[in-house]
Amino acid sequence: MWLPSEHEKYGVVLASFRGTGQHGLPLEIGDTVQILEKCEGWYRGFILKNPNVKGIFPSSYIHLKNAHIKNKGQFETVVPEEDPVITEMTSTLREWGTMWKQLYVRNEGDLFHRLWHVMNEVLDLRRQVLVGHLTQDRMRDVKQHITARLDWGNEQLGLDLVPRKEFSMVDPDEISVTELYKLMEQRHRRKEAPTPPTVHHLLVQVKSLVSCSLAEELQVCFSIYDSRDGRPLSERFFVRLNKHGMPKSPERAERQCTLFTDLGSGDLRKDVYIVAHIIRIGRMGAGEKKNVSSVQYRRPFGCAVICIADLLTADSRDDHNLKVYTCNTESEWYQIHDNIIRKTSSRYSLLGSSTGLSISLQLLHGDMEQIRREYMTLFTCGITITRKLGFSDIIMPGEMRNDLYITLEKGEFEKGGKSVARNVEVTIYVLDMDGQIIKGSLWEGSGEPGADSFQSIVLYHNNSPRWAEQVKLPLPVDTFRGSHVRFEFRHCSTKEKGEKKLFGFSFIPLMQEDGRTLPDGTHDLIVHKCEENANLHDCCRYLKLPFSKASSLPGNPQAAKSSKESFCITSYLCSTKLTQNGDMLDLLKWRAHPDRVGDSLSKLMEIDGSEIVKFLQDTLDSLFGILDENPQRFGLKVFDCLVHIINLLQDSKFQHFKPVMDTYIESHFAGALSYRDLIKVLKWYVDRIIDAERQQHIQQVLKATEYIFKYIIQSRRLYALATGGQGEDEFRCCMRELFMSLRFFLSQDGKAASPVTQTQAIFLKNFPAMYCELLKIFTVCEVAGFVRDTLGSLPITSQADCPLEAVKLQCIAKTVESQLYANPESRCILLPVVLHHLQVHLQEQRDLVMCAQVLSSVLSITMRDNTDLSSAEVVSAIVRSLLGVLLVTILEVTNRPQPAGTAMRLQFQDVTGEFVACLLALLRQMTDRHYQQLLEGFASKDELKDFLLQIFTVFRILIRPEMFPKDWTVMRLVTNNVIITTVLYLSDALRKNFLNEGFDYKVWDSYFYLSVIFINQPCLQLESFSPTKRKRIVEKYGDMRVMMGCEIFSMWQNLGQHKLNFIPAMIGPFLEVTLVPQQDLRNVMIPIFHDMMDWEQRRSGNFKQVEAKLIDKLDSLMSEGKGDETYRELFNSILLKKIERETWRESGVSLVATVTRLMERLLDYRDCMKVGEVDGKKIGCTVSLLNFYKTELNKEEMYIRYIHKLYDLHLKAQNYTEAAYTLLLYDELLEWSERPLREFLNYPMQTEWQRKEAMHLSIIQNFDRGKCWENGIILCRELADQYEAYYDYRNLSKMRMMEASLYDKIMGQQRLEPEFFRVGFYGKKFPFFLRNKEFVCRGHDYERLEAFQQRMLNEFPQAITMQHVNQPDDTISQAEAQYLQIYAVSPIAETQDVLARDNVSDNIKSFYKVNHIWRFRYDRPFHKGTKDKENEFKSLWVERTTLTLVQSLPGISRWFEVEKREVMEVSPLENAIEVIENKNLQLRTLITQCQARQMHNINPLTMCLNGVIDAAVNGGLTRYQEAFFVKDYVASHPEDCEKIGRLRELMLEQAHILGYGLAVHEKFVPQDMRPLHKKLVDQFHLMKSSLGIQDCPPYLPFANGSPRTYMGSMVNAVSPDGGRGVMRRGPSTLSYPAANRYSSSSLSSQASNEVSNITGQSESSDEVFNMQPSPSTSSLSSNHSASPNVSSSAPSSTRGSPLSSEMNKHSRESSCLSPRDRPCSAIYSNPLDPTQRILPHPMGDVMLPRSDPSLSAPDKGSPTQTLRSLSPVPIRTSPQKSSVPPFTPSPTECQSGGLVSNSPALSGSYSSGISSLSRCSMSDASGLEAPPPGELALPSMLTASASGGSDELLRRDSKTPPPYSVYERTNPRRLVPLPHGLSVLPGVDPPALPPKPSQIRGTKLDLDPRRAEQVPRPRPLPRKVSQL
User: Fold this and answer.
1) Which residues contact 753 (CB under 8 A, 6 or more apart)?
2) Quick one: which of 663, 1380, 1606, 1685 could link to 1359 by a disulfide (CB 3.0–4.6 Å)?
3) Per-residue model confidence as pLDDT tens digits over 1243-1258
4) Hey, how many other C-beta atoms are within 10 angstroms of the C-beta on 319?
5) Which pairs from 1221-1225 meet CB under 8 Å and 24+ separation?
6) Per-residue pLDDT at 619
7) Which contacts of 1846-1850 are long-range, i.e. CB under 8 A and separated by 24 or more positions?
């Protein structure tokens, strides 16, 4: 039976549990679980990190831990009972673990590894804490280290700042908000600006002396030297090195390193150095032989220095190799370090380039206790401590020092009868009063033990040596008296014996006879002659001699002194027990000289403070002893001395001696009667303050009042204890009188700078310190009365700049923080005066920082004592006095401009935060009764209104993100909790007082505005937090957004008809609230929109305002990342459900649908605009949204904004043509007017004319960059007309030149023809603007189908490519996936009139072929009926699909949606006609290019001829004859008679063209290809025989001598757009020119003769043979590249089908298709459409498809080595479709008998040409006869084109989207007259090639060349944008 667990509530998983059984809960080792129930060895519960999943698990897998349960019951929370630091570590490490893995994913390697090390370190420290074996100090250090690491990690990961108190996390509910703010601020300041340490220590470790080869021992002496003052700052540290330069005792590491301690911040300067003196221990001369002398001397060797400031930036121990210098003369040894520092290089030299002293240095920071904790290993091994000379900056009371430092300065000695100077060595001894040498009393420095004697260095042959060597004498205090120091001088001989001969001595006593120690300074000692050591044994004999030249003692006959010789030393005493001051000794021994007491007291104030604090207790005993014996005479002086000593302890150097004085007062003070005299003198001073002219001394007295009161109170207690409480009334009376004097003195209202005011300020600073002392005698209420009366006596009015005001608040602050205020009884007495002063200062906005601190303290204390009944009264008093002024203060402070200075800015922020914390603390402590009293306390509604407006405004300020630092989430949550609690109280007042008749819009608007920004603030968006943080917040505060949303809904429902006041103003804010991703909040708030619609419908009859506001606000909000698909569905469902029963249901549903569709597009737009998305998707989405704003919403401003967003996207993607079209949309909205326009987007304030001019120029520039120069010309003309109208000839000239340059570019630069691709997007996973739609896309330059497919898959990586071209069914379109269907399509040109002209340059035609395209075609071959295996062309049909777009390409996008889809079928016969037509056109083009010498290489013509002739001979055309010319087919298809005749005619025409082509080929063929030519001629004869052709038609003479062939006229019977809808003619019109034939031999000879007459012609009026080559714009082109006329836009290997499977499937079916009938065929014009004219196309795709029946089997696949060798001339690869280098193909290498093989290199040059042929129709579709050659029926063409396009024009005009083309601005299909450059010149010679049969068929040839002059030249009309 499952029972609720009582004690087993919390546990840790010991082993993993799979939980495979029923209801089992899987567990991982280390998981923490909360247990709900138990049953026979099993527990039921959940894992704390996933509380939603509950299950059972074995109890043996769980280690139970003690836990504390909160909120027992269903929603109970378990908190483990463990160290809070452990709990925090556990939760933090779990949170870090997840984020740590994300760092690896984001490739943030540095932080990943650093965090890993910190986590391991924290885990190790956690183990140490859990073990519990640490001492208290170590535990404190470990916790401090843990919290520091946790804070570092939280900061690095962007987590919240954790408030802590003594290393433990603080619960915000258990402390006051003001305390919480202080904790947060302290941690924030510590994080941003750590306090710099004031004490530093230097760690030095000696490693070796590099390259030392002296073979003698060395002594290295380190010290810290101040070069500015020229004195050492520290003692010396000695290290001995062996003869190899290594430490002499390497096993004792402590001997090699030292710690220079107690360096102040002022010692870390650039002029402070570490100096190392190196002394050699050995022979006198470095080069002497070893056997000269065995005596060793200390000799100078070298010196090295390093600046200590160089170590400030190093955090770790750094190694240094110091250069060692030596002095040039030994006499400069004493100052060699100074010379090196000052770089006096003439006095020293480098000891050796390879010689260096290797040391390591590290600067440590903090006091010694901290250093001992952090670097414990240093002290465990016994590191040497090198102390600072003298006392440190701060003298500690327990510090015991008694050190005398003696420095050997210099000496003057005589030669002593020698010819050279002496080698003087000084030996030092310390002797006691008995003449005995004190053992171990001389210390050369740290690192060396004390010695009995000290030998100085020896300077060679120097009678005036200067040593600068220092020794330390650490003697006990009792040893100083009677001891002296003796200096013995010896000459060191350099002879073999090496003896040291004594020649004199000096001495000096350590203490004078009066008890004073040897004074600091230089002492010039007398050198006494002495030659025998025996004379020095009895010290009593020479101690009677004078020791200094300043002394005048009589001489001793046993020792003679020399007047010429002298010896100087310097002494410095550092002692805490000995003094060198006689005045101090006189005071301490005042009883011995009572007559000098007055002088001693007077001189005490002149004694150095360090001397006084050394004898503090003795001095105080002396003072109070004098006061007790003679108070009348010395009372005032003793009081002044006491004041001097007390103020001396205020100095930072001696402030640590305050505890010494406190101890003295408590334990050693014995002046029981002193209080009377102290009170008396103090009152005497206070009474004379007002009248005194000089206040300095009185001010010093008042500074010492704290300790004076301590002495008074302690003295009274001692007296009461001794007398049993006698004199109590007298004492109280004296104290009252003293306070009366103080109150009178404080009540004086002086000027700001008056001395009395300053004195008042000084007293107030020290006044709070008296409270504790007074409480020792007086009751709490009595002391509180003293304080209240004293503070109440202060002047009320004062100047703003008076220093007394700030001090007054400081005094109040200390009062509030004192023990006195902590008592509830005294608090009630003191609170009124505290609140009074605070109110005055806040009202005057003075001393706000102190006011905030005082109020913060008051509220904190009230919070701590909230159980007391008096706390409620305190809160009431604070609310009455300060709530209103506090709100005003916050408003003033936050609206005040921030000061410029950093310090002032910090103060500004501090005071803001302090006041905010005070307000929050006060509001949180208010109860229902407090709010009731507050709201009832307003006298009128106006006052209540002002209060509500103020507090709502303040709350809005508190919600600002900049109010607190971003990681103060704890503080923000507390703030929000207080705000929502307060708002719930205030909303009742709002409903009661400001509704119905008393409605006030301003208050309600402020309320709603506050509620909205409250919900939207970032710190409440729980969805953005981690699950752990989210759970923690919800458990503590709940989701405060839902609470506020419910309150908004409730308040809205109470408004009634007043809701109309907030429509439409509150639509935007409420919409922003509903976009918050919280389901409950949305459910509450979305119905408000239905209410708004209902009320607006009642008022206006519609809700246009609601709709407009919703639409306007949605765009801006969703662009900020708000809203999601769930919101769109919820918005739609909730409102539709609400609208169901409304009378205005239809309009409501329409609004909801419109808004929903807008959300769809905005969500798509936001998703597409994310970083990393491709530009194509962004552009498509922007176009969709732009069209929606224009067509459905008619929002012009939003429309224009998205125009410019789209424009920027195009520029970024380098789609310059699309960018120009996009900007043209905005340009069309402008007019040429002077209407002023406001500043908008990036446009300045300007007139409409100026903006339109700038737009035109920008559009022209983009058209130019996009090589769409024709469109730019139209805009140039329009702009030029404007300039001309304004007579702005300068700009007119520039514009005409720009127009001319565009014409030059058209004729001089080649443009690439892009590919076009049809893309279908199927499936629900696509964005709305793409879902289940098909588009046609304009590809990039050089982009083929494969590249385009890959690009689309990159844009949609989740998409699946469909492997067929059939339309998908519903299973695909409704699938939860993405499917892409991609294949190439061919454009159908709209402008046929230009393309039909023979004399128009290909550079011009190339623009009209691929621009302004509305329709595209795709062909798919298939078999209908039974397939004939012998001749498959009989049943091969073509399914032709025509796609019509919503807009023409190019436009504002590279792709547009398909609007209309038409499918038709082309019969096999019609397909055959198209194939042969296209082949004939290709042949004509190649022959024309060869004739005009436009081909740099004849290989394309060779390959084309070879492919056609060889294929025909082997049965190519024969297949067509077998299929369509047999009687059975004619009989069964009588309707195709005309088409059969047309096919026969084309076959004959092809034979004639081939004959002429062979003649041209013979003229230009190279010699090495003659065999191939002969072979082609022979095969041509076979081809004619197979076709039944005996002779070619005769040549007809023309006026220009060019031959023409006469053939019957026949109208084209096949429609390019389909095989069925064809205008048919009767069979009677057919004529078969079979009578006129030539033999094959005569054909060849005749053609050869004719070719010689026409090879020089380069122009012709024939529509096929006059096509000019277009210069290449690609960098890949060269002078020998193939003409663009042999290239096209159709892909090579992909023309047949988008997929290889489709290509294989239709391999044979495609063999009879024309190239244009392939699935990726190029443009094909419809001759039935009057708007389409004859469209010749450049020939160039020499890769003929395998469906061409004219190709022989061998040429389709097998290359021939013979023919490959016949093509030596390289062919340039066209740059239009391939970027690979060109190569030379052989005719036999080209598949299908064409010009190009399967090589990708050739596919770029010729792969598209064949399919391009289908863009041209060979005859007029109107059924009229063609005009004679040389005559162009231009007017009829224009008329037919205009009339035939009327229906199409109406269809285009009915489209709702705006025109996106310069040709669609006014009339999308308006025919544009041709410019002069495109008209046909009269008298142009016809081409030198037989004419097309379709042109001469059925007409008579007019030999009159003047007929050409009858065609009028069309006059070009100016075209403006408005006419396009």
Assistant:
1) none
2) 1380
3) 999 999 999 999 999 9
4) 10
5) 1221/1450, 1221/1451, 1221/1452, 1221/1860, 1221/1861, 1221/1862, 1222/1452, 1223/1255, 1223/1258, 1223/1259, 1223/1262, 1224/1259, 1224/1860, 1224/1862, 1224/1865, 1225/1452, 1225/1858, 1225/1860
6) 81
7) 1848/1731
